[in-house]
Structures are given as structure tokens and as C-alpha cells.
């Protein structure tokens, strides 16, 4: 399945290239420009060389420590939500009805959280989890457990994680469901004849068929959780203290809150480079799995 | 359908019931709150409105600063969807049918923009769109959202296009179709569901994004999601109004989901199952 070589294909790609370049390269150059300068306001800028980068990457400075904290917090958050959303998503996909009106109804309800504007997701959980006016907050306190997400860091974390699970598990589940639907019935019949257990069916038929879509799910969930901003911003504003200040929240605080353009720009670049590196790893893994699959299907 | 494809156990049904309840509960609470008076919200926790009121919805529909927020949001979302799909169609075709110099690097670079944190771009976009005079117009937000929606649309469409056998292109060429005519008359109908799915995703990600939309607008093009952040008044939070506005922002998404419900699962797999 080799595609013909044709460099005129660039003509078809050119419009996309131009608009994305306009939206990506021009702003990145602005950021690079800011990152090597310092400003005292009034649009006066001074050359600062690599000063901001040195400060950022040195955890003993105020900026460096802050960045490292936000980075660890964000990685921890991504790890937690992946550990919950991926298994839960698979479980939900396996439990989904397969026929009749229930399928459409389930799909619509599941997709609903995905189409709610992110700040409204924050608002929904704010009014749901507040101890004074929210159903969940009120119910938990009524059970005798002291719960207040605006004051207690642990409660804030749990609330944000539950909110993210509510918001995004359906994405993983829908992806896995699409993977499951592509499995031909013959596979299941063969398994039945062989007397395979439910678990064997899962590990030898369903899981391998879901591998590709699971990779997309993990990729999307990791990246999106790594740049999460709006939902925790609305829910906790990064607090209490700095307990839920993730990378994007910290960046916006520095850039638009304190107007520390140099620091913010240096942080943007390092942040973006981390994302780019992770993105590259995932992309390589994904394209390799893709080639493997093609080879399995068309040997020789 | 085989026995294994059925929700074979009562356990499966239980999982689904619990999961769907978990999804619906917070939304139910929002709807419930939007129909209560602020007095009731602040004084008691009630499972349904004792004193049902539509005052919050009436306020939103009669106050221009509220409903213009919806119009602004829908304007830039529609613009963005049209731009993204129009540009992505030929590019996705090129990626699915030809190898060319820099193909793999270009594809990765596009994909990496989908993954770039909007927070990184907020400030430079503000400078850029102020400089070219588009600040505070729906165009600024629509173009800014192209940063992540165009790559996504290319990605989805490429997946669907690769599912169409190449023999079709060749047969059309032999039959004397010019490329544009072939593309519009024959090829696009074949991937109609893919176009629908890609449009759905562009709509979705443009509709739910707030950080860039907020940074790039001031008053004229302010999206509804930003208008909502103003509900703090001297008397404290206007929770009822906030809840009603929230409910109204869920509706467009729910309508769109209803139309594409049969393609949702395949769409979320980006055409790659």
C-alpha cells in the first residue's frame, strides 16, 4: 500500500500550512522575543539574555521552584486521571448496550459532558459540590464527613479529579466502544467454540482490538489534562493556596495577572517544549502500532 | 449479534446505570437550581424547586448583553467550523493519497499544534490580533481556534478518506472527471459522514474553549461563557442566573449530539477503527 510520490500535493496542503503557520509561528516568535527581555512597563524592554531560562530551570529560585511545583502537580494530576479514566472507560464500553433505543440514548447522555463549555463544567461542579448550596457537598457533610473544597487541599484535589472523570471518561468509553464494534462476530463464535472464559475473550480479542483507539484516548487525555486550565480555574482558582495551581493556571497568573512578560514567555517555551517532546513520543508509538497493524492485515 | 456482544451480565447493566446517574446528577442539580429563586437556593437544599420560577431565563432572553453573548459565541463557532473544514478537505486528501517531501514532519507539526496549551498562546494572540485590527471581533476567535481545529479536522478527515479505495479516484480520472469536479461530485459524498464528524468536532472544541475566546474579546464579541462570569453582584453571587445561563449553554451541544448520535462513536475514534 505505497502511496504515489507527488510533490504537487503541497498545493493542496498549502492553505492549511499557511493558516496554522500564521496562528502558530508568529505568536511563538513573539514569545521568543519576550523571553529574552525584561520590562518595567511602559513598553520599555531590556535585553536579558537567557536569564529567565536560567532562573526557570533552577529550582532554588522563586520562579524555578514555582515552575517545578506546578509541573509535578500537573504530572500527578495527569497520572491520577489516566489511572481512573482508562480502566473505567473500558469497563463502561464493555457494559454498554449494543442494540435498540438504549444505544442512542446512552450515547447521547455520555457525549453530553463533552459538549459543555469548560467554564460551565467548572460552574456545574461548583454549584454541585459547595457545602452550602450544592447537593454533593451538602450530602457529604450531612453524612458527618467534613468536606469543604475551598478550604481543604485534599478535598479540592478530590473534587477536581472527580470533575475530570465526570467530564472526560465518556471520551475514553466512546473510543473503546468504537473499537469493540469493529470486532467481527466470527471472533466471538470461535471463542465460544473454544470455550474461552470471559476474561480470555477480553485479553485475547477485545483488548488487542482496542489497542489503537486506546492509544488515541491516552494521548488525548494526557495532553488535555496537561494543559487543563478553565475547569480548575473556575472551581478553585488554583487554591486553596497553590494546591491546585497547574501549569496553565500558573502561566496565566504570571502573564496576564502580573504582566511579567519575560518570565511568562520563558515558561511558555519550556512548557511547550515539554508538550512537544511528549507529543513526539506518543506520535512515534502510534504510527509504529499503525504500521504493525497494516503488516498483520496484509502480510508480505 | 452474538451472546458476547449483549450486555451479558446484570453487572454490566448496573455499571451503566451507576455511570449514567453519575453523569446526569450534576446536570440535574444545575437545572433544578436554575428554576429556583435565589432566596430558596441560599436558604435550603431542596431536591426540586418549591417555588418554581422562570425569572432567570426571562432575564437572559430580555437582556441584550446576555443573548448577544449567545449570538457572538455561535458566530465564531460557525465561522471556525466552515474555515476549518474548507481548508482541511484538500489537505487531508493530499495526506491520504500522496507521499511528498516533508509529509511526516508536516503531519506531526500539525498534530503538535492540537496539543499546544492555549495558555501559551493567549498573550501572543492578544498582541497579534490587536496589531492587525481584528481584536474583539468574532474573526479573531474563529481564526485563533483554527490553531487546534484545523489539525484535528485534517486528522479526522484523513482517517475517513483512507477508508475510500483509491480505485475510485483512478476510475474517475479515466472517465474524464477533472480533479475539482471529481472531488466535489464523487469524493465528498463518499466521505459525507466523515465531514459531518469533523464539523461536529470543530464545533465542539470551538464551543467549549474559553481561555482564548476570553482573551481575544472585550465587549462587542464577548462570548456567552464570558458573560456568565459577571454574575457576581454587590449582593453576592446570582446563583440562579448563573445556573440558567449554564443550562442554556448545554442546549446547543445537546442538539448537535442528537443529530450525529449514530456517528459519535466512530467520530471519537477519528475515523481510525
TrEMBL record, chain A:
Keyword terms, alphabetized: Membrane, Transmembrane, Transmembrane helix, Transport
Nucleotidyltransferase listed as a keyword: no
GO biological process, one term: transmembrane transport
Membrane topology: Multi-pass membrane protein
CDD domains recorded: TM_PBP2
Top-level taxon of origin: Bacteria
Subcellular localization, as worded in the UniProt entry: Cell membrane
Main subcellular localisation: membrane
Pfam families reported for this sequence: BPD_transp_1
Transmembrane segment boundaries: 12-36, 75-96, 103-128, 154-180, 213-230, 264-285
Stored InterPro entries: MetI-like, MetI-like_sf, Sugar_ABC_transporter
GO CC, alphabetical: plasma membrane
Domain (ABC transmembrane type-1): residue spans on this chain: 71-282
SUPFAM superfamilies per UniProt: MetI-like
Family listed: Belongs to the binding-protein-dependent transport system permease family.
Name listed for the protein in its UniProt record: ABC transporter permease
TrEMBL record, chain B:
Parts of the chain that traverse the membrane: 12-31, 74-95, 107-126, 138-157, 186-208, 239-260
Record keywords: Cell membrane, Membrane, Transmembrane, Transmembrane helix, Transport
Positions of the ABC transmembrane type-1 domain: 70-260
Gene3D superfamilies: MetI-like
GO CC field: plasma membrane
Topology versus the membrane: Multi-pass membrane protein
GO biological process: transmembrane transport
Protein localization: Cell membrane
UniProt cross-references to Pfam families, sorted A to Z: BPD_transp_1
Domain of life: Bacteria
PROSITE patterns cross-referenced by the UniProt entry: ABC_TM1 (PS50928)
Family under the similarity heading: Belongs to the binding-protein-dependent transport system permease family.
Name of the protein described by the UniProt record: ABC transporter permease
Amino acid at each position: 500500500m505505497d502511496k504515489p510520490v507527488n510533490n504537487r500535493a503541497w498545493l493542496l496542503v498549502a492553505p492549511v500550512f499557511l493558516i496554522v503557520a500564521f496562528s502558530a509561528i508568529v505568536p511563538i516568535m513573539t514569545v521568543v522575543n519576550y523571553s529574552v527581555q525584561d520590562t518595567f512597563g511602559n513598553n520599555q524592554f531590556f535585553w536579558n539574555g537567557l536569564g529567565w531560562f536560567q532562573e526557570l530551570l533552577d529550582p532554588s529560585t522563586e520562579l524555578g521552584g514555582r515552575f517545578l511545583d506546578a509541573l509535578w502537580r500537573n504530572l500527578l494530576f495527569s497520572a491520577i486521571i489516566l489511572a481512573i479514566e482508562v480502566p473505567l472507560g473500558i469497563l463502561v464500553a464493555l457494559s454498554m448496550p449494543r442494540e435498540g433505543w438504549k444505544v442512542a440514548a446512552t450515547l447521547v447522555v455520555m457525549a453530553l459532558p463533552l459538549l459543555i463549555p469548560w467554564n460551565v463544567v467548572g460552574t456545574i461542579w461548583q454549584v454541585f459540590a459547595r457545602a452550602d448550596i450544592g447537593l454533593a457537598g451538602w450530602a457529604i457533610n450531612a453524612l458527618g464527613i467534613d468536606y469543604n473544597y475551598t478550604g481543604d487541599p485534599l478535598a479540592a484535589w478530590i473534587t477536581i479529579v472527580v470533575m475530570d472523570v465526570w467530564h472526560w471518561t465518556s471520551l475514553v468509553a466512546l473510543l473503546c466502544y468504537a473499537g469493540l464494534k469493529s470486532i467481527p462476530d466470527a471472533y466471538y463464535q470461535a471463542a465460544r467454540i473454544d470455550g474461552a472464559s470471559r476474561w480470555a475473550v477480553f485479553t485475547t480479542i477485545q483488548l488487542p482490538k482496542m489497542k489503537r483507539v486506546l492509544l488515541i484516548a491516552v494521548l488525548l487525555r494526557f495532553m488535555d489534562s496537561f494543559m487543563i486550565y478553565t475547569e480548575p480555574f473556575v472551581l478553585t482558582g488554583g487554591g486553596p493556596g497553590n494546591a491546585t495551581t497547574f501549569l496553565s493556571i500558573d502561566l496565566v497568573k504570571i502573564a496576564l495577572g502580573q504582566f511579567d512578560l519575560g518570565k511568562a514567555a520563558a515558561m511558555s517555551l519550556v512548557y511547550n517544549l515539554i508538550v512537544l517532546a511528549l507529543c513526539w513520543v506518543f506520535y512515534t508509538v502510534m504510527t509504529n502500532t499503525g504500521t504493525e497493524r497494516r503488516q498483520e492485515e496484509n502480510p508480505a | 449479534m452474538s451472546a458476547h456482544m449483549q450486555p451479558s451480565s446484570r453487572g454490566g447493566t448496573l455499571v451503566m446505570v451507576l455511570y449514567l446517574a453519575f453523569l446526569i446528577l450534576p446536570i440535574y442539580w444545575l437545572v433544578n437550581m436554575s428554576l429556583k429563586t435565589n432566596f430558596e437556593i441560599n436558604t435550603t437544599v431542596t431536591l426540586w424547586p418549591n417555588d418554581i420560577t422562570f425569572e432567570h431565563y426571562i432575564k437572559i432572553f430580555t437582556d441584550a448583553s446576555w443573548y448577544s453573548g449567545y449570538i457572538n459565541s455561535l458566530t465564531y463557532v460557525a465561522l471556525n467550523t466552515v474555515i476549518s473544514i474548507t481548508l482541511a478537505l484538500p489537505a487531508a486528501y493530499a495526506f491520504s493519497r500522496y507521499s511528498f517531501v516533508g509529509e511526516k514532519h508536516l503531519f506531526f507539526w500539525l498534530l503538535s499544534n492540537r496539543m499546544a496549551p492555549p495558555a501559551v498562546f493567549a498573550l501572543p494572540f492578544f498582541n497579534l490580533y490587536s496589531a492587525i485590527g481584528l481584536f474583539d471581533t468574532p474573526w479573531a476567535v474563529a481564526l485563533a481556534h483554527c490553531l487546534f481545529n484545523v489539525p484535528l479536522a485534517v486528522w479526522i478527515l484523513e482517517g475517513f478518506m483512507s477508508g475510500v479505495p483509491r480505485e475510485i479516484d483512478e476510475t474517475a480520472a479515466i472517465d474524464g472527471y477533472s480533479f475539482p469536479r471529481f472531488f466535489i461530485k464523487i469524493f465528498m459524498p463518499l466521505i459525507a459522514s466523515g465531514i459531518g464528524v469533523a464539523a461536529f468536532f470543530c464545533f465542539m472544541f470551538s464551543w467549549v474553549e474559553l481561555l482564548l475566546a476570553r482573551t481575544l474579546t472585550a465587549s462587542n464579541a464577548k462570548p456567552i461563557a464570558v458573560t456568565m462570569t459577571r454574575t457576581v453582584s454587590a449582593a453576592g453571587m446570582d446563583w440562579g442566573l448563573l445556573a440558567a445561563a449554564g443550562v442554556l449553554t448545554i442546549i446547543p451541544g445537546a442538539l448537535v449530539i442528537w443529530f450525529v448520535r449514530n456517528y459519535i462513536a466512530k467520530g471519537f475514534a477519528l475515523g481510525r477503527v
